[in-house]
Amino acid sequence: MVIYQLPEELRKRLRTNNTIERVNQEIRRRDRVIRIFPNDLSVLRLMGALLIEQNEKWAAGPRYLNMTVYHGIEKDDNSEEAGMLKLVK
Q: pTM to 2 decimals?
């Protein structure tokens, strides 16, 4: 798997999908409170508002990934890790 070719700092965060599962759990939690939506647009508005709220938390909060490690690998085009990153892109 390509994930194991990345540096350990990135691998720890990227190998799980906990972040996505947490967002889905929050949407389900809010959905259970409302139960019945009047139309499809109301569902989209709720989901959009939740995702905007989550994006603001992620932008203002502590960094989940330290991207300086990633950019350092990207600059060193001769390394094996840089070759793996090109495969991922």
A: 0.51
